[in-house]
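Changelog excerpt

This revision adds worked examples to the README so contributors can see how folded entries look when concatenated. The first example is reproduced verbatim below.
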Amino acid sequence: MPMIIGALVAMLMQALREYLPGILGKVLLAFGIGFVTHEFAMPALKSYIQSQLAGLPSLLVAYWDATGIGIMVTMILSAILAAKAHRVLLSKLSSS
């Protein structure tokens, strides 16, 4: 019985050594990309969108805010930015 438990523990340790760095690395990469996108890329993009909305009539801007379209656009653009940043970062890492 102790040999079976020892073999199972060894298999578990080997699986952790093999798969954990990949999973943990991907999770940390996703958090880093999300942080950079949220802190640096989104404010510039949001200010650009707000500058484009300044030319609209006030009634359309009020509808934009009341319906939540601004939040929807922010969510979609942040997802697009994160996906593009992930693709660019992975291509840079694989080419190095």
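The second example, added in the same revision:
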Amino acid sequence: MDQRTKRPVRGFTVLELAIALALIAVAAGTAALVWSRIAAALRLEAGIHQLAADLHDARVVAVASASRTRLAFVRGQTSYRIERADDDGTFHLAMRRPLPRGLRVDDANSGGDLVFSARGNAENGTVVLVDERGVRASLRLNQRGRVTIDRGRT
């Protein structure tokens, strides 16, 4: 009993606890259903930004080394190659980059290669990534080496 008010101290009733637990269960269930879509969207965003960063780095390497550099894509693959040209113009593998889990290359025009010249210029090209939900995001490279990201293409 509370000595100041002379009323008995009461806790929660069973009904109040049941309602609170039901609300928590509904919220947790909804979050669990939505989480897979949120995680897939985050992986797609990470993959397209990884690709943009690698294109930027390839351009810098091409200019710094005064040699051609390219990113090579194969449709349906979950990774891509970063290659550098030697003095004879033959490309050699510098690194193979995996895409985040659940992503693959859906399309790559310009023959599947995005090439930077020794001056940092490039060929126009587009690469499309797709996740397990079928949601696509594309990245465009223009002749000046500028990268533009298009999110959520279907």
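Reviewer comment on example two: Residues 14-65 form the longest helix (52 residues). The beta strands are 69-72, 79-85, 91-98, 104-108, 113-116, 125-130, 136-141, 147-153.
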